[in-house]
């Protein structure tokens, strides 16, 4: 476009020169100052128009390049979104059931269960609802808590304590009839027991045992007031190992264990890492 304009300008310039020359021949090859000034003015105007046109052309070219760059950016963004959507498709396919037998089969030609299941599944995929297989938890939950519903009067040595009122027994490991906890799974367990004496001045030693072997003990003795003691133990247990509390095997207890609405003698345990 700029080249065409320059060609036009050159032609006009030649016409001006020829016209002035013809006029000069008529006037015996002489050019007046007025004619020269007029010709110079015409050339100046043409030059200014040419420069203005060049600036406009440069502006147009810059605008065109800007629009092209913008189109490239938009196209690139569109491609990124398309690739992202494509990447979600394999993810959805991975979540589909691997075994076709998960869909119920039937020889009954009137049974549309399979077709309905597939239609619902396709509808979920279309609506963006992916089928996800939730893994089963690897750890088991085991916990129990029980207390004595009444006093244990004057127990002797080597006497198993029975907490007959069961409040919690997740995993069914505790037996409220025997006072024994049997580990349903292998793991690390925490046990806690609390004993109240029935009268001031009474005393007693309580053992906690693992498979009938003492693994901990607590002693309670209140001289002038009611006395209480709590104990804790953290034990690693194999499946079917047993834990229970009892009075000391050789230290003779003196008094009774109290358990009522005011104070509860209790036994509890829970698994902190079971498999």
UniProtKB/TrEMBL annotation:
Region forming the signal peptide: 1-23
Keywords: Coiled coil, Secreted, Signal
Residues of the C1q domain: 137-275
Biased composition, class Basic and acidic residues, residue ranges: 84-97
Cross-referenced Gene3D superfamilies: 2.60.120.40
Claim: Transferase is one of the keywords in the record: no
Highest taxon, organism lineage: Eukaryota
InterPro entries per record: C1q_dom (IPR001073), Cerebellin_Synaptic_Org (IPR050822), Tumour_necrosis_fac-like_dom (IPR008983)
Region described as Disordered: 84-125
Name assigned to this protein: Uncharacterized protein LOC111106513
Organism, as annotated: Crassostrea virginica (Eastern oyster)
